[in-house]
Amino acid sequence: MIDDLLEFLGACPTPFHVVDRAAAALRDAGFTEMDEAVEWPDAAGSRFVHRSGSLVAWRHQTCDAGFRIIGAHTDSPNLRIAPRPDAGSSGYRQLGVEVYGSPLLNSWLDRDLGVAGRLATPSGAKLFCIDRPMLRVPQLAIHLDREVNQKGLLLNPQIHLTPVWGLGPSTVGEFAEAAAESAGLGADEVLGWDAMLHDLTPPTIGGIDGEFIHAARIDNLVSCWAGLEALLGAPADSHPSAVLCLFDHEEVGSTSAQGAGSILLPTVLERIAGSRAALHPALARSLCVSADGAHATHPNYPERHKPDHPIALDGGPVIKRNANQRYATDAAGEAAFVAACGKAGVAHQVYSHRNDMPCGSTIGPFTSAATGVTTVDAGVAQLSMHSAREMCGARDPLDFALALRAFLSAAA
Ligand code: ZN
């Protein structure tokens, strides 16, 4: 099972690849794909629908017991290819990039980088993935930055993050050509792209006893994987109805046509329920887990954490509380998730952020505001959040999947 997670992490360098892979797994399990652009006379059964980098899947028979919803996000902070990327300086061919979300910028330096995403063509979108070390952002030598270890590394995202990918003069259209070729297209067929860089180091098991996972995009593909496992393991006649929503654009605030702040989830739930009249009572009986990474206590920086809320890797799923609603968890949501962990036989932990530092957020506040559904923010503890290479415990993802499965099957 852990091999399946490592493979999932490695195979999904972009939100589009996450959706593509999830859709394939759902189809294999007998789920039927729905078309958003036509009416749905009947949405009962095992179904899914996707919109760009987001996907909603469900197992539904009746609305009697409402919905049990698992939400996660498909995007991770990274460097994305600019619209007119072909650039160069000092005899190098380079590609212009745009910083997406809030990555730890230093973590992108001196890595073997590939590029992946989707291309717009006259006949629709086509995924592409170049898995060879075509790009690199070279760090400045210490001899040219003598105080870097004393004063810290300062990176200007406009100036210092432009990857090199060759020597000589750059030619306009080079990037489109390379991307087109990798997708088996002619350069003139590429009308636009959503393309981003990824580290080529494969996900791996680490630690002296294999207790860690080292990988890119642990935030938040571990939750996408665990949510998918839970839904696939749920019975076809799930009662309450089981719903999995994987949203793009969480790392930039969730406001887009398919982000958690969009009407995607409320609209799909209404179409599953069959009518608005059936939806509202169903929502009142529903519960949601907003599944996302949590900060484990860092052994080298324990002072950055609230002293009475230590979080351990492999200590079980973490319930995240924040009185200022950066996390959506309330007492009722917490109680429901604690019960699910108990039913699954896994431990749980509770996180609270220091009062003297601003707290991160998740899709939870968005989906709970849009649906009025009691929500709990929970996820797998990790270190190095938003680095190009993160780490988590090797047992936690499996425990989280078990807890999510128990949450889906719990009686209302
Ligand atoms: Zn996240």
Kindly describe this structure.
The chain has ten helices and 20 strands. With 412 residues, the protein is of the alpha/beta class. It has two domains: 269 residues, Zn peptidases (Aminopeptidase); 122 residues, Aminopeptidase i, Domain 2, CATH 2.30.250. A nine-stranded mixed β-sheet has the order 1-2-3-13-4-14-18-16-17, sandwiched between helices. Helix 5 packs across helix 10 and helix 8 packs across helix 10. The model has no long low-confidence stretch (mean pLDDT 96). The chain binds zinc ion (ZN).
- Please give the count of helices: 10
The amount of helix comes to: 25-40%
- Give the uncertain stretches in residue-range form: none
Class inferred from helices and paired strands = alpha/beta
Q: What is the typical, i.e. mean, pLDDT?
A: 96
Distinct small molecules bound, one entry per kind: zinc ion
For CATH, the homologous superfamily of the largest domain is named as Zn peptidases
CATH architecture of the largest domain: 3-Layer(aba) Sandwich
Q: Give the CA-based shape.
A: globular
For the secondary structure, the number of strands is 20
CATH overall fold name of the largest domain: Aminopeptidase
How is the main sheet built?
9 strands, mixed
